[in-house]
Design goal:
About 30% of the residues lie in helices and about 25% in strands. The chain contains 14 helices and 21 strands.
Length: about 525
């Protein structure tokens, strides 16, 4: 029996899966019950049935076992990870890639050549979820002729669907929710015994001891808070990512110091609702406020040596304070870019969405940011065709976009999601209305972004080079402090060559809606 997890060794009939349930909060023992449901899996004869893990892991299970890794390194194959959705998913994928490489896997050159395929999924929109099933279909065909292929679904679709994914895709080996990303090696060890494993129960996210495989050598994500306690009526995130769990500042600083030692220059602090950071941590200051807030964290991490830039996402207007704005203006490393979703320009819809703020409150936030940082870039998210949205309410959203002048807005038509109140309302709008409104708002967003970008023409902007432009190897690509994607020549006027990690002064020569092109200069 493996430490912290119950394994069932007895032979059972192939069509009778095992469901493991937690007995009590004070006990980590697992009770075995038989289910009446029958799964017909296309697995090798005699393979054990599904193992559903619902017990909290022992802290030791999140650590990589060096002996196991060294012993199996020559036996490991290649892996491929496809990531859908938000930055949180991308950060999780980097972490899981780091675990796989520590285990001895190497990144495959192509998805259909990999020995282990992992889809890190998103369920925020139905089309993202359906795309996952399309990808799984071609891997299921591979698995029928290659039983050694390991097939994993992680992330929010895995958390949402759980064991039912095995019924839809019997070829799956592992289904794991986002709270279990740090346990990938432990779960794969169970898979290697011949089990199908489902890990979707609530799980306290223990401090990560692995080293992420970063997709960039210059910019890195650092999770500071997991989960979300909000209950927006359209959003599935709280049910798939769990309750808020803030990391301690010392752990965050330690990770950032490690990244700085490896040459990283820019850190984005991540949280599903990052402004809520610290409200689950103990402590009250002498002034009577919480000891741990995002504002306090920015002051604590600001002086990590070697880190040149700081960003954070995603913000919630309900918790975005003047104290936070002032800190961003006063701290030189914090970039002048703020991603603050507003979702709708109508107060009645915001109330129906359970967002907890008004349009007037949102305007005051933007006004305060621009008062302290006049050139700051503002990006946002918006939903059109929310249930019951009238044409007049939709027009108020368009008016807010024009009034504020966003640098970028991520748009989406409302998509009913499982286990959300709005999905069951009887005032859903038609697909034709959704498509028409989305097309109109997208055209407005693009024109507004181009107008905002016009201010860069002829200016010299500091750009952090992130890598080579894949469409033009003679160019580098990077971002301004205001998060504008910028392309420029790798050759400096003084004859030297710039490379990833360099801070380069670039004169902006060409302006487009969502990117810039410029020429390096010497000041």
């Amino acid at each position: 029996m493996a430490s912290g997890t119950a394994l069932v060794r007895e032979k059972r009939r192939r069509n009778q899966p095992i469901v493991l349930k937690r007995q009590s909060p004070s006990c980590h023992k697992l009770a075995v019950t038989q289910t009446k449901r029958r799964f017909h899996r296309r697995r090798s004869p005699g393979s054990p049935p599904a193992l559903a893990l619902s017990s909290p892991a022992s802290p030791s299970l999140t650590k990589t076992n060096p002996e196991s890794s060294n012993r199996d390194e020559q036996q490991r194959g290649s892996y491929w990870i496809t990531t859908f959705g938000c930055q949180m998913n991308k950060a999780d994928s980097e972490r899981m890639a780091g675990i796989l490489e520590t285990m001895g896997y190497q990144e495959a050159k192509a998805e259909l050549d990999a020995d282990l395929v992992l889809y890190n999924t998103c369920t925020i929109r139905d089309n993202a979820e359906q795309k996952v099933y399309s990808y799984l279909g071609r891997q299921a065909i591979r698995k029928r002729t290659n039983p050694n292929l390991t097939l994993v679904v992680a992330g929010c679709v895995a958390q949402q669907e759980g064991e039912s994914l095995l019924r839809r895709v019997p070829e799956l080996d592992l289904v794991m929710g986002p709270q279990h990303a740090n346990r990938l090696e432990t779960l794969l060890t169970q898979v290697q015994t011949g089990q199908q494993v489902v890990a979707t129960e609530d799980h306290h996210i223990l401090e990560d001891l692995t080293t992420a495989r970063r997709d960039s050598s210059t910019c890195a994500w650092v999770n500071v808070i997991y989960g979300c306690n909000e209950r927006c009526t359209y959003c599935v995130v709280p049910s798939v990512r769990g309750k808020e769990q803030s990391r301690l500042p010392d752990s965050i600083i330690l990770e950032m110091e490690g990244l700085a030692a490896r040459g990283f220059k820019e850190i984005t602090l991540l949280g599903q609702n990052i402004d809520a950071y610290g409200r689950d941590l103990p402590g009250i200051t002498a002034e009577g406020r919480r000891q741990h807030t995002l504002t306090d964290l920015l002051y604590q991490v600001h002086d990590v040596e070697g880190i040149e830039r700081l960003r954070f996402a995603t913000s919630h207007p309900r918790y975005f304070t003047e104290r936070l704005i002032d800190a961003c203006a006063d701290l030189p490393k914090v970039c002048e870019h703020f991603h603050i979703p507003f979702q709708s320009g109508d107060n009645e819809l915001l109330k129906a969405m359970a967002r907890g703020y008004t349009v007037e409150r949102y305007r005051r936030i933007i006004d305060r940011i621009r008062e302290r940082m006049p050139d700051a870039a503002i990006s946002a998210d918006v939903i059109v065709a929310f249930p019951g949205e009238t044409d007049a309410q939709y027009r108020r959203t368009l008016a807010l976009i024009e009034e504020i002048g966003f640098d970028q807005v991520n748009t989406a038509a409302y998509s009913p999601r499982p286990n959300t109140p709005a999905a069951d309302w009887n005032n859903q709008l038609s697909e034709d209305v959704k498509v028409a409104r989305l097309q109109e708002i997208n055209a407005l967003v693009e024109s507004t972004a181009k107008e905002r970008n016009a201010r860069y023409a002829g200016r010299v902007e500091q750009v952090l080079a992130e890598g080579v432009n894949p469409k033009d190897p003679s160019q580098l690509m990077g971002r301004t402090r205001t998060n504008r994607l910028t392309f420029f020549s790798a050759d400096s006027p003084n004859g030297s060559t710039h490379r990833a990690g360099d801070l380069v002064d670039v004169r902006i020569d060409q302006v487009r809606s969502f990117s810039l092109t410029g020429t390096p200069v010497i000041n």
